[in-house]
Amino acid sequence: MLYRFILFLMILLLVKNTRADDSISNPLQIGIKPQYGIILAHSSKIEQLTNSNSFGLEAEIAWLRIKEKNYQQCNCFSKVGFSILYMNYSNPEVIGSSYNIIGFAEPYLIRTKVFQLSTRMGIGLTYLDHIYDEINNPENLFFSTHFAFITHIDLNANFKLNNNFSLMAYAKYNHISNGGTKSPNYGMNFPTFGIGLNYNLNGKIDFPNFQNQEFKPFNFFYVNTFGTFKTVEKDIENPETQTFIFGFYGVVGRKVTKINGLSTGLEYINDGAVKEKMKRLNLETDNQQISFLVGHHFLFGQFDFSQYWGTYVYAPYKVRNFYQRYSLTYRFKRHIMIGVTFKVHGDWADNFNLLIGYSF
Questions:
Q1: How far apart are CA 153 and CA 192, in angstroms?
Q2: 23 inside domain
Q3: How far is the C-alpha of 254 from the C-alpha of 256, rounded, in Å?
């Protein structure tokens, strides 16, 4: 279900950015990006698996958003698209390789005639050909499901060579995890970097001269509900058990720059996985959790990529006092939002949820 929903979001991104426009069309660009990187040891339990280097190849297709309605959403030009990424982790017996399809959005921070600096945020699906198996592959604590999620944030520098080609240097921070749907799930953090090549299918790109809208700070209010299934692994006395997690959070925020917002709010979670663990430990306490949130938002038109710091206010059973929540939402028309949200306790993923919300 989660994997299909991610694909739906990516198809939605494609449809929204290939619609016809009578005045200006969004140019098409393709790129090739070889890359090399390292695997970070974010836990002592997977440290022995981080001695190898990762390498791979990424092919992408993107649309430069140069229409006025796109520009006025953030007073900047940007591009959106999809990429297919192959990564080899130089450990064929234990970790193997991953095959990824990713949707991304990339606003330009600096733009001249020959140089552009941009940042990219991407989310997608990954297939892992080697996963944990207690008999055949007990060392791979990174992954326990063949299908998982990949997220990344990049910094890109583009240098124009001629009307068709541009050279790009980039650095990426990548994360792969199944979102806590099955354990073990330490996930993998692997920065990569490289030099690639872009090709403009439409030839020379003329960026229009649009007048920036005067930025005026404004307040926003979101109420989001989310849910997912999570598997609690078997132990000596109990079989593997499927549980359900659901909750909601509401935030009040303010857009403080053309692409940045800040917020505070409250979150409630009813965690079925926690309830199952308490049952196995014979603990008579509550599985419900209430938290205080402080958040930052990257706001690009209808898209909102938010990062929250959560502090438990009420949680009789908790593994840590703090957590992080990452959400990516798309707003339909004015009020209805859909998306995904990801809860992380420091170095490990707790759960990955579908999300639907209302924006006031």
A1: 11
A2: yes
A3: 6
Same domain, yes or no: 162 and 236: no
Q: What is the pLDDT of residues 260-296, one digit of tens each?
A: 999 999 999 999 988 988 888 888 888 999 999 999 9
For 329, residues 6+ apart whose C-beta sits below 8 A from its C-beta are 224, 303, 304, 306, 337, 338, 339, 355, 357
Domain contains 210: no
Residues 228 and 352 in one domain: yes
Q: What angle do CA 84, 104, 98 make, to 5 degrees?
A: 35
Q: What contacts 19, CB < 8 A, 6 or more positions away?
A: none
> 314 is written with which tokens?
């009420």
Q: How far apart are CA 128 and CA 151, in angstroms?
A: 15
- pTM assigned to the model: 0.79
Does 313 lie in the same domain as 190?
no
CA distance 191 to 129: 20
pLDDT digits (tens, 9 = 90+) for 10-23: 555 555 554 544 45
- 9 close to 151: Cβ distance less than 8 angstroms: no
Residue 183's closest CA among 243, 123, 126?
Answer: 243
Q: Write down the residue that tokens 């949680």 correspond to.
A: 315
Domain span holding position 246: 218-359
Measured distance CA(243)–CA(228) in Å, rounded? 9
